[in-house]
């Protein structure tokens, strides 16, 4: 994958151009690299929610012995 890839704000197409989108002439932006998969942008959030539900159900997973 090329490093200087830009993404059109209008149509979402990727391009190597830096001035404007070759497809629709729209404005370009530099897509910021994400640590998580772009296909699962809410993975982190979902994992946190899952843990919250878990804690609600079974108490804290770390030393939650209340006997
Ligand atoms: Zn475009």
Ligand roster:
zinc ion
The low-confidence parts are none
Name the strands of the widest sheet in spatial order: 2-1-3
Q: State the order of secondary-structure elements, H for helix, E for strand.
A: EEEH
Beta content comes to 5-15%
- The secondary structure category is alpha+beta
Describe the protein:
This protein is an alpha+beta fold and 67 residues long. The chain has a domain at 1-33. The protein contains 1 helix and 3 strands. The protein has one helix spanning 43-58, and strands at residues 6-8, 14-15, 28-29. It is rod-shaped and about 65 Å long. The structure holds zinc ion.
What's the structural blueprint in terms of helices and strands?
Layout: E1 6-8, E2 14-15, E3 28-29, H1 43-58
Antiparallel strand pairs: 1-2, 1-3
Zinc ion (ZN) is lined by residues 8, 10-11, 13, 21, 23-24, 26.
Summarize the structure.
This protein has 67 residues and is an alpha+beta fold.
Please name the defining characteristics of this protein.
67 residues, alpha+beta, binds zinc ion, three-stranded antiparallel β-sheet
